[in-house]
Amino acid sequence: MSERSEHERSEHERSAYERSGYGRGEHERIAEERTEHERAEAAPAPSGASASGASIQLENLTKRYAGNPDPSVDNVNMEIKAGETVIFVGPSGCGKSTTLKMINRLIEPTSGRIRINDEDVTDIDPVKLRRKVGYAIQSSGLFPHMTVAENIALVPKMVGWSKSKVKDRVEEMLDLVGLDPREFHGRYPRQLSGGQQQRVGVARALAADPPVLLMDEPFGAVDPITRDHLQDELIRLQHELHKTIVFVTHDFDEAIKLGDRIAVLRERSHIAQFDTPEAILTNPADDFVSGFVGAGAALKRLNLTRVRDVEMAEFPTVTVDDPLQSIFNKLRSGPHNELLMLDRRNRPYKWLRRGDLMRAKGSLARAGQMVHDTVTRDATLHDALEAVLIDSGGRVAVTGRRGEYIGVVDMETLMNSVHELLEADRLAAIEHQHDLAELRHHQTEQELEGGAEKP
Amino acid sequence: MGFWDYLSSRHQQLLTDAFQHASAVFQCMVIATVLGILIGVVSYRSGWGSGLAITTTSTILTIPSLAMIGLLIPLVGLGVAPTVVTLTLYGLLPIVRNSIVGLRGVDPALVDAAKGIGMSRAARMLRVELPLAWPPILTGIRVSTQMLMGIAAIAAYASGPGLGNEIFRGIASLGSANALNEVLAGTLGIVVLALLFDAAYVLIGRLTIPRGIRV
Question: Which residues belong to any copy of the ABC transmembrane type-1 domain (chain B) (predicted)?
Fold first, then answer.
C-alpha cells in the first residue's frame, strides 16, 4: 500500500469520525452512521486503498487429539471469498472454534491444507502467519498491564513499523472503533467497560491492517444492548474495510445479522449447510439446520432486508407553507384519509387526518399529530415493523440522510414485500437445490467411473 | 557500659558489619532471584518439573543452616564462598514457588491472545507472562529476603561477613561485660536492616508493578 493512499484513508476516517461527533445521543450517532453507509456506497469506495480481504481455502482440514478415536474436526473443506464475512455457527463442542484456530494455526491441523490468497500457509512459520491474520477473542483478551495504546501498538511494532507511523495508527484505530483517542489512549483495560474493551480488542486485531480477521465469539461476554451496538459497529467497519472475516458464534441471530454466508456446523465440524442467511432461513438443508434456525424464520428474515429494498406506499404530502385550502383539496381529492405535513426543510412534521382539518378552523398550528418516529432507508424491515406496530396509525415515515422525507411504510407494504421476499427465496432455494443435486449426481457418476477404472 | 555507650563507642565496626550484612544478602538475593525465576520459567509448564523444583528447593530449606555451612566448608573453604552458596540456596524456595504459581496463574486466554496476535514464545514470556506474574514473584523475593537476613547471621560461623560476627562474639564471651550488648546490637541491627529492605521492596513494587494490574 502506498504511503499516500494510507494517508488519504486515515484522513477520510478522521473526518467521518468528526462528523459522527460526541456528546450526542446514541440514536443520533447511529442514524449518522447509517447515513455514513449511504455515503460510502455512493462515493467510490475510499477503502480500496486499504489491504482488503484475502481468500481462504480449507482443504480436508482434520484435527485429531491423541487418545480420542474420533477426530474433533473431520475433513473440513471450505472456500471463503476475499472480503466476505463468514460465520461459523453451531452447538457448543461442535469444533467451530477449533476450526477457526486452525486457520491461524493456534491449533496445528493433523492433516489438510490451509491456503490464504492461494498461498499455502500450512507449513510457514506460525508467528509470521499470525501477524498477517487479525485475532479477536471473547472478553477482548487485552493485556491488563498495558495501556490501550500499548495494546493496539503491539502488532504494528512487531512487524517493524516506525514509531511515528505506529503512533498515528493507534489514533486512527481508536477513531475507527469509535473511541476518543485523547480520552482512551492512556487508560488501562480495567478502566474500560466491557463494550469498550471489546472495541479496543477489535482495534488491536486490525492494527497492522491484516487482510484476514478471525473472531472467536468476540461479543459473547457483553450484555445484549452493548452486543447489539458492537454488531452494528462491526457491520460499519466491514463496510469501510472489506476484510475477510471468519466469525464464530453460537448465536444464530448474530450469525444472520453479520454474515454474508453462514456455515452451520454439527459435531466434528461437519458442515450441515454453508449458504447465505436468506437461503438458510427459507430453505434449511435438514432437520439439524432447521432446529438451529429455530422458530420465527419469517421474522428473522425481516432483519435481512432494508427499507430501501421494498416499494414504499404512495402517500400525499403537504408542506407547512401550503395554504389551508389547498391542503383541504388535496385530502378531498385523494383516496387517503390522512396526509403527512412536512416542515420547511422537507422533514416529516405532522400527520393530519380529515377530522383534524375539520376541527382546525383556520389554523393548523395545533391540529394533527406530531411525527415521533421515523426510520432511515438503511433500517431493517424488522425495525420498520416495530415502528409500524407501535405507531397508532400503523405507518411510519422513511427519511433520508438529512432527515428529509422519502416515503411511508405501512403494514400492507410490509406484508406484501415479505410475501414477495419469501416467495423469491423459496424459488432461489429450489433452484439452488436443483443445482446441488445435479452437481452431486455428476460427482457420484465421476466417482463411479473412477472406481470402475481401478482394478 | 550501657547499650547506648556501647553503640557509640563501636559504631564504626557496627556500621561496617551492617553494610557487609546487607551487601551479602542483597547480592545473594540477586543471584537467587535470577536462578529462581529461571527455574520457574523452565519448569512451570510441566507438572513433574515444577514438582521437582519445589520439592528440591524445600528440601534444601529443611537442612539446618549451621549444618549446611559446616558441610560446605570442606568443599568451598571459609569466608565469603560458603555464605553466598548457603544464602542463595535458601533463598530459592519462595522465589521458585511463587514464580511457578504466578506464571500458572496468568489467564490462559491472554496467553492464547498473545499467541494469536503473533508474539513469539520469548516475547510472550517477557512481555506478557512475566509482567503479569510479577506481583507474586516480588512477594516471593520479599519473603526470601526476610528469611536470608536471619540466616546470614549464621555465616559468621564460617568467618563470613556481617552482623553475625557481633552475635557470635557475644555468645562466645557470655558473662563478660559486653556480651549482652554485642548480641543485642547484632540482633537489632539485623531487624533494622530487614525493615529497611522491606520498605525498599514496597518502593520497588510501586515502581515495577504496572498500574493496570496494581491492586
Answer: 18-201
Buried b (16+ CB within 10 A) or exposed e, B32-46: bbebbbebbbebbee
Q: Is the CB of residue A207 less than 8 Å from the CB of residue A224?
A: no
Closest chain B residue by Cα to residue A212: B117
Q: CB-CB: which of A132, A135, A190 is closest to B212? A: A190
Note the pLDDT tens digit of each residue in A393-402. Answer: 788 888 887 7
Give the Cα separation of B86 and B72 in Å (integer): 8
Transcribe A147-179 into DSSP letters. -HHHHHHHHHHHTT--HHHHHHHHHHHHHHTT-
Instruction: Return the closest-CA partner of residue A99 out of A130, A67, A74, A128.
Output: A74
Grid cell in block for residue B200: 525498599
Per this entry, what is the length of chain B?
A: 215
Helices (H), B44-129: 47-62, 65-76, 80-104, 108-116, 121-123
ipTM for this model: 0.81
Pairing of strands A348-353, A338-342: antiparallel
Spell out the domains of chain B, with CATH numbers in brackets: 11-213 (1.10.3720.10)
Residue B122 at interface with chain A, using a CB cutoff of 8 Å: no
d(CA A163, CA A382): 46
**Whole-number pLDDT of residue A51:** 59
Burial class (CB in 10 A: 0-12, 13-18, 19+), A398: buried
Contacts of A106 in chain B (CB under 8 A): 112, 115-116
B94 within 8 A of B148, measured Cβ to Cβ: no
Q: Is 70 exceeded by the pLDDT of residue A15? A: no
Contact across the interface for B212 and A155, Cβ inside 8 Å: no
The predicted structure's pLDDT at residue A33: 42
From the number of C-beta atoms within 10 Å of its C-beta (0-12, 13-18, 19+), residue B92 rates as buried
Kindly report, residue by residue over A147-156, the tens digit of the pLDDT.
999 999 998 9
pTM of the complete model: 0.69
What does the alpha-carbon distance between residue B35 and residue B178 come to, in Å, rounded to a whole number? 41
Distance to chain A for B120, nearest Cα, Å: 6
What angle, 0 to 180 degrees and rounded to 10, lies between the N-to-C axes of helices B80-104 and B3-43?
Answer: 50
Distances in whole angstroms, Cα of residue A139 to Cα of each of A47, A99, A195, A245, A303: 28, 20, 9, 18, 26
Q: Does B118 sit within 8 Å of A129, measured CB to CB?
A: yes
Chain B contact for A205, CB < 8 A?
yes
pLDDT at position A27 = 43
Say yes or no: A45 contacts chain B, CB-CB below 8 A.
no
Detail the DSSP E strand segments found in A252-322: 261-266, 270-275, 317-319
CB A131 within 8 A of CB A155: yes
The pLDDT score that the predictor gives to residue A361 is 67
